[in-house]
């Protein structure tokens, strides 16, 4: 309960605090003019950009002091260049992901573990030193608290900041006191090296926060914003404290709004204030982080997710305390760099659209008009919009590591750079796109998927997001139009200003062109999305396989040809599956060489992941649960499969009097049972189809785990038929081999006419069981019956209760709904059957219900079942 409350607090508190800050600062935000702001950004001189970039990189470089101190304390044999590299990656990720410090701590643990054998010592030092990284801000907080620097104007309207500043100011003394008491309680004292490390970390923290404030001041100075360092430092400290206590990653929103409000209190316009904050975020956070991404991509190539999880699992206890106060889930570390790459692709698309919706630099447009033709500039503008929309669409595929999307995205980034440059010499956007293209190229090893499924939910989200972005594109251009019309010379106004109607048309044309280009491009890869090679259903190969390996009660359903076959790399293990939604559903357990089952399951997982699909195993046996558990699956008990021991089955004795009575009754009335072997005559097949159609009563056939009427399929195995005294076919059942060397037998279809007397199916069952016993079979499988108590317990998980409802009212069974009553009649035994799934149980059950609800037979060659070669 306590853990749950902490988690809720971590989520709710930042949202509420950000909402409060926004409500207080919304008046200032509403005064912003997008046109002025965008013109300022596009009018920046290269020297100004270079100056701000240099200062930001130098400031971030100072944070490497943390790593130098920790590495020296641990005496790790890490080359100096590696120390700088590890420090840069850890600190830039920590800057963007949050002030909490867990991102940097986790990455340091990942990097240093290769040089430190004592992992417990390594983690304890990292956990011990990470809280010290906030002590520099704690020292600076004393400046406004004691009045050395003044934030009186800000406190007059936001008095709560004084209490926040006081709390952060007391952080360092509180940390030192608590640490001292904790060590004294354990009877431990700090060594000289310990003290040097603590003092050094506090000094490094102070340098970090001072350099961050100097970066902000330098940006203000370069942009000619009239504010002194003393006033800016006071505002910076207040804003940084607001960001730290908000628990929002990077202090985004809370820091910026306090700074925006503070700037305006000193007479600085909201446009200029926001311009300073944008460039501060860009050169102190975003660009250093992108550099960190490049460095991280080279560092992580040889390291896998599995290694990372294994390492942290060994030191989990050492991290429990830190995790309890951190908002950063460590699992994100393993994929955050790729997520960031996808976000940058999306940002690139957004940048192209905003660039197209906003004016270029006036001087550049005049030069462009002289060098390039107006039609070429207009075409480049339209193609720039198209490229932006394509990148927005492709960002999801980049996130899911789809290889064809990588190739197309790389081409569109290069093209987008060319188009945005040729429409008005916007070299800044072009260089940014080329840089992102370089990042994408460096990350090409990450892309391995052939495709990724498009679900209804994902499609809805993408369409909604695209509509929002295109609306923003039109809105930005529309709001700028009156402002630009007043300032742009009439002779180039047609090149410079887009009317609202033109914005709408360009967005629609861009959307259509983007969709067409993606469709054409993906057409070249269409064949790759079809399951080929080891998944082709080769009936002859299956037949040969079943002569050498045992099957199970579901194996014969592969001959329905509504499923595909998966062979492991040795060809010794076979699974039958079908795609449904975003899952590949395997029917039953793998069959073949038992010693290769686990590796085959892992191969299938990799195969499914190649297409962005989840893997699900339906109706698996209890004996193989450990295999699925070891490969990451959860379980849901579907029901129990009934089977009869034919060695003890008999109609004699007092207990079986009712069964004998049924059999005797039908024999007296002239009913005749017959086991017919294939090939069947056309007239018999027509009789069977007539009975089947009547039994269905207008309902659709099912499939996958349930057989359906198909003449080719029925011709494969013997058929049990029951006729009345007049020779009319009243009921039939198709026999299904189990492929276990004649040990077992089962049934598939069991159908009867609507006018059959009570007990007809009992008579058919009894006759089949007697026939199987006489032929020397040991076991007879009656099929699976759902459990009545699945998901009914008050302690069942909600997902299990929902899944149980879907299972109960879905399409999972129809011919075995009354099967449980045969348990006592035929002295049946029961074995549990399970569903192995990886996530979202209710959705998995829903997909299964849809999968089974309709047959999907595929045309194929004539097939011959091994049973035809000699049924007992």
TrEMBL record:
One cellular-component annotation, GO: plasma membrane
Record field: catalytic activity: L-lysyl-tRNA(Lys) + a 1,2-diacyl-sn-glycero-3-phospho-(1'-sn-glycerol) = a 1,2-diacyl-sn-glycero-3-phospho-1'-(3'-O-L-lysyl)-sn-glycerol + tRNA(Lys)
One Pfam assignment: LPG_synthase_TM
Phosphatidylglycerol lysyltransferase C-terminal domain location: 544-837
Keywords assigned: Antibiotic resistance, Cell membrane, Lipid metabolism, Membrane, Transferase, Transmembrane, Transmembrane helix
Subcellular location: Cell membrane
Primary location class: membrane
GO molecular function: phosphatidylglycerol lysyltransferase activity
Glycosyltransferase is among the record's keywords: no
Family stated for the protein in its record: Belongs to the LPG synthase family.
Function recorded in the entry: Catalyzes the transfer of a lysyl group from L-lysyl-tRNA(Lys) to membrane-bound phosphatidylglycerol (PG), which produces lysylphosphatidylglycerol (LPG), a major component of the bacterial membrane with a positive net charge. LPG synthesis contributes to bacterial virulence as it is involved in the resistance mechanism against cationic antimicrobial peptides (CAMP) produces by the host's immune system (defensins, cathelicidins) and by the competing microorganisms.
Protein name: Phosphatidylglycerol lysyltransferase
Native source organism of the sequence: Exobacillus caeni
């Amino acid at each position: 309960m306590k853990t749950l409350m902490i988690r809720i607090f971590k989520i709710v508190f930042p949202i509420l605090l950000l909402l409060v800050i926004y409500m207080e600062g919304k008046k200032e935000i509403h005064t912003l003019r997008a046109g002025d702001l965008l013109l300022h950004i596009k009018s920046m001189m290269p020297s100004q950009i270079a100056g701000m970039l240099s200062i930001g990189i130098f400031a971030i470089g100072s944070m490497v002091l943390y790593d130098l101190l920790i590495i020296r304390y641990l005496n790790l044999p890490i080359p100096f260049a590696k120390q700088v590299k590890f420090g840069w990656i850890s600190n830039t990720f920590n800057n963007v992901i949050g002030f909490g410090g867990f991102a940097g701590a986790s990455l340091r643990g990942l990097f240093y573990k290769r040089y430190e054998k004592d992992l417990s010592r390594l983690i304890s030092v990292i956990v011990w030193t990470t809280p010290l990284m906030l002590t520099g801000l704690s020292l600076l907080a004393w400046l406004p608290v004691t009045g050395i620097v003044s934030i009186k104007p800000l406190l007059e309207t936001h008095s709560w900041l004084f209490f926040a500043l006081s709390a952060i100011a007391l952080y360092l003394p509180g940390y030192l006191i608590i640490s001292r008491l904790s060590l004294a309680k354990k009877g431990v004292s700090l060594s000289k090296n310990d003290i040097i490390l603590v003092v050094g970390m506090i000094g490094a923290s102070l340098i970090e926060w001072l350099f961050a404030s100097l970066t902000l001041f330098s940006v203000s100075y370069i942009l000619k914003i009239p504010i002194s360092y003393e006033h800016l430092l006071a505002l910076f400290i207040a804003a940084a404290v607001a960001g730290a206590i908000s628990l929002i990653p990077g202090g985004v929103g809370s820091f910026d709004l306090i700074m925006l409000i503070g700037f305006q209190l000193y007479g600085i316009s909201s446009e200029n204030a926001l311009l300073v904050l944008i460039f501060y975020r860009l050169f102190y956070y975003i660009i250093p982080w992108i550099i960190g991404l490049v460095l991280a991509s080279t560092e992580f190539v040889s390291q896998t997710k599995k290694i990372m999880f294994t390492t942290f699992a060994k030191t989990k206890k050492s991290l429990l305390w830190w995790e309890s106060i951190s908002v950063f889930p460590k699992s994100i570390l393993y994929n955050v760099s790729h997520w960031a790459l996808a976000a940058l692709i999306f940002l690139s698309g957004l940048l192209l659209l905003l660039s197209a919706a906003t004016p270029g630099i006036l001087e550049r447009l005049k030069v462009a008009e002289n060098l390039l033709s107006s039609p070429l500039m207009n075409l480049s503008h339209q193609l720039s919009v198209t490229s932006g929309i394509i990148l927005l669409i492709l960002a999801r595929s980049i996130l899911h590591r789809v290889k064809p999307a990588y190739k197309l995205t790389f081409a569109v980034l290069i093209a987008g750079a060319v188009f945005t440059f040729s429409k008005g010499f916007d070299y800044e956007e072009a260089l940014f796109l080329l840089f992102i293209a370089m990042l994408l190229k460096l990350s090409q090893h990450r892309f391995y998927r052939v495709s990724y499924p498009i679900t209804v939910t994902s499609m809805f989200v993408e369409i909604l997001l695209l509509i929002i972005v295109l609306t923003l594109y039109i809105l930005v251009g529309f709001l700028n139009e009156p402002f630009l019309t007043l300032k742009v010379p009439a002779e180039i106004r047609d090149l410079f200003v887009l009317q609202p109607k033109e914005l709408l048309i360009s967005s629609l044309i861009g959307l259509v062109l983007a969709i067409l280009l993606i469709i054409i491009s993906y057409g070249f890869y269409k064949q790759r999305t079809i399951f080929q090679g080891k998944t082709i259903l080769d009936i002859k190969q299956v037949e040969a396989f079943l002569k050498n390996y045992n099957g199970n009660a579901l194996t014969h359903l592969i001959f329905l040809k509504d499923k595909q076959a998966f062979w492991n790399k040795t060809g010794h293990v076979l699974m039958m599956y079908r795609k449904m939604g975003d899952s590949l559903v395997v029917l039953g357990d793998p069959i073949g060489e038992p010693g290769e089952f686990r590796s085959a399951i892992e191969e299938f997982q990799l195969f499914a992941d190649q297409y962005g699909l989840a893997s699900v195993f339906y109706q698996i046996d209890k004996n193989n649960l450990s295999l699925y558990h070891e490969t990451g699956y959860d379980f849901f008990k579907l029901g129990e499969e009934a089977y009869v021991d034919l060695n003890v089955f008999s109609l004699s004795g007092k207990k079986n009097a009712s069964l004998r009575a049924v059999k005797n009754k039908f024999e007296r009335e002239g009913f005749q049972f017959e086991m017919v072997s294939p090939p069947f005559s056309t007239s018999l097949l027509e009789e069977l189809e007539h009975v089947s159609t009547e039994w269905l009563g207008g309902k659709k056939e099912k499939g996958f785990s349930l057989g359906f009427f198909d003449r080719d399929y029925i011709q494969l195995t013997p058929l049990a038929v029951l006729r009345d005294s007049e020779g009319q076919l009243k009921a039939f059942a198709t026999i299904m081999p189990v492929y276990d060397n004649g040990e077992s037998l089962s049934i598939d279809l069991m159908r009867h006419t609507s006018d059959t007397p009570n007990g007809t199916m009992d008579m058919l069952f009894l006759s089949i069981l007697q026939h199987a016993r006489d032929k020397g079979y040991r076991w007879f499988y009656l099929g699976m019956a759902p459990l009545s108590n699945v998901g009914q317990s008050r302690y069942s998980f909600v997902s299990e209760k929902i899944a149980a409802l879907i299972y109960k009212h879905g399409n999972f069974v129809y011919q075995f709904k009354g099967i449980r009553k045969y348990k006592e009649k035929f002295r049946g035994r029961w074995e549990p059957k399970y569903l192995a799934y990886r996530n979202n149980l209710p959705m998995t059950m829903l997909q299964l219900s849809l999968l089974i609800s309709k047959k999907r037979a595929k045309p194929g060659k004539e097939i011959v079942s091994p049973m035809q070669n000699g049924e007992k």
